[in-house]
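User: I'm preparing a small set of examples for a lab meeting where we compare how different chains pack in three dimensions. I only have the primary sequence for this one, and I'd like the structure in token form so I can line it up with the others. Please keep the answer compact; I'll paste it straight into my notes.
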Amino acid sequence: MQNLVQQAADILAHARRLVILTGAGISKESGIPTFREAQQGLWAQHDPQRLATLQGFLANPTLVWDWYQFRLRLVEQAQPNAGHRAIAALEQRLPDVEVITQNVDGLHGQAGSRRVLELHGNIRRFKCLRGHGNLTMADLAGQASAPPLCPHPGCKAKVRPDVVWFGENLDYRVLQQAAADSEACDVMLIVGTSGVVQPAASLPYQAWKSRARIIEVNPEKSELSDIAHVHLSGPAGELLPRVLAVIGDR
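Assistant: Understood. Below is the structure token output for the 250-residue chain.
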């Protein structure tokens, strides 16, 4: 393993433009259950299509709102782990680093990463059905209704989490930026993603086709392992600090 850590450190140390793609695996190390794992107990009786679709929200907005408030409480109890912090440290040591994440928990920002593209939105942020966005829980405070209504003057539309639900398109501008950055990078670090959720799963292939070096950190092989030049098998919170330490010893 130390030889692979050394190889990864060598590639990263010479990166001119590094893109880091992260998935649910790195957040799981902070104690945040995946969507399926969170759907236990009271929520196990509900179809995921009712909990994470616009149609489900329109049919039963209180149920969906309560589900996301439950998930939000789980996120708010979590803290960035050593993997998040190592990624933020790479931004300080390398000339050009961007994080593209499929996670909605905001932990990369909490860890200190400044350039973060959130492909699937952010569970701490809200928007109304008429499009007023960038709302926080503080903006919605004092309302007894679940879901609350938009606080913008004259609106009063129902408020929903600002996340991408099943059947919805990603924000076009965010996706275009992620694709352009993936094509332009010379190194991509993939952390904790299975490589099966599209369109995020296509980004490593765009980097690979542009001859970028690919490093994967994942406890198990994924759909992306075949294009990785280095695969580090294990948790990001353990392996990324080791890679960072080797880079720092130069």
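A couple of notes for your slides: The domain at 2-31+80-120+169-248 is CATH 3.40.50.1220 (Rossmann fold). The beta strands are 18-22, 97-101, 116-118, 121-128, 159-163, 187-191, 213-217, 230-232.

User: Perfect, thanks.
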